[in-house]
Automatic annotation (TrEMBL):
One of its GO terms (molecular function) is ATP hydrolysis activity. The keyword Transport applies. It comes from Filibacter tadaridae. Its EC number is 3.6.3.-. PROSITE patterns: ABC_TRANSPORTER_1 (PS00211), ABC_TRANSPORTER_2 (PS50893). Residues 6-241 form the ABC transporter domain. Belongs to the ABC transporter superfamily. It comes from the Bacteria. InterPro entries: AAA+_ATPase, ABC_transporter-like_ATP-bd, ABC_transporter-like_CS, Metal_Ion_Import_ABC, P-loop_NTPase. Keywords: ATP-binding, Hydrolase, Nucleotide-binding, Transport. This is High-affinity zinc uptake system ATP-binding protein ZnuC. The gene is znuC_2.
Length: 256
């Protein structure tokens, strides 16, 4: 039987009086790679904020690693990379290594003292995302895609079992997106880290993910990737809110 690391049961959420999430059921198992996809404004970030404990659902229950979220004590098991992470400008006075090390404790600042062991953990984490050779470089000198890898290394430094990413390819050049996704695939496959990747792009990512959830206020589909692929374009368009068609194994929005 799969052990669930995220279990949402009948979760609803409203901002003021407008319902943003409507009776959501979602179960993410150990080692699974989920793409949570939906158009802008479909409630993806709200759902992630609920999983992270930053918002309380209006009704329903959330369990993380088998514990009710209200009594969950192992935040370090979850690494999170937000949408706005990769935006350090060139003058920012921190090295890549300092940024990654700062993920080791919530209380630490970028520049507090760290042990040699902390440094080794940070270097190992940078190695996983293919960025070890950038350790001594200033974070602001890196491209958006490189910075995003560094932020993933920061999220991995505490050795989480689950990595949640909100729109991680924003700010990455199109030609680097495929290699970024293949790095995520390795993380999942070779390191056994479960991934929840949030995106409004219904393309490449659904080819990498083992599971897909389609959100637009409610969950329109959730299940294994091959079943998602069997859905016809009309079903996908109805959920997404405007026409989409799939080209080869990838999905592409139809030009309006
Ligand atoms: P997504 O991440 O899919 O773009 P969000 O979860 O950010 O969607 O937003 C879902 C809906 O909730 C949108 O209609 C958005 O305008 C609304 N919303 C988001 N944050 C707030 C807020 N703090 N107050 C009121 N409405 C909000």
């Amino acid at each position: 039987m799969t052990n669930h690391i995220i279990q949402l049961d009948d979760v609803s959420f409203s901002y003021d009086h407008s319902i943003v999430l409507d009776h959501i059921h979602l179960e993410v198992g150990e080692g699974e790679f989920w793409a949570l996809i939906g158009p802008n404004g479909s409630g993806k970030s709200t759902l992630i904020n609920i999983i992270l404990g930053l918002l309380k659902p209006s009704s329903g229950s959330v369990e993380l690693f088998g514990s009710d979220i209200n009594s969950f004590k192992h935040r370090e098991r979850i690494g999170y990379v937000s949408q706005k992470s990769n935006s350090f400008n060139s003058g920012f006075p921190a090295t890549v290594l300092e940024v990654v090390r700062s993920g080791l404790t919530r209380k630490s600042g970028l520049f507090r003292s760290f042990s040699k062991k902390d440094e080794q953990k940070a270097l190992k984490s940078l190695g996983i995302v293919g960025m070890e050779s950038f350790a001594r470089q200033n974070i602001g000198e890196l491209s958006g895609g490189q910075q995003q890898r560094v932020f993933i290394a920061r999220a991995l430094v505490g050795e989480p079992d689950l990595l949640i990413m909100d729109e991680p390819t924003v700010g990455i050049d199109q030609q680097n997106v495929a290699s970024f996704y293949s790095m995520l695939n390795e993380l999942n496959r070779d390191h056994g880290i479960a991934i929840v990747l949030v995106t409004h792009e219904i393309d490449l990512v659904t080819d990498l993910a083992t599971h897909v959830a389609c959100l637009n206020r409610s969950i329109h589909f959730h299940g294994i990737q091959s079943d998602y692929k069997k859905m016809d374009d009309e079903d996908i368009s109805n959920w997404y809110g405007h026409p989409v068609r799939r080209v080869h194994q990838f999905e592409t929005e139809v030009d309006q």
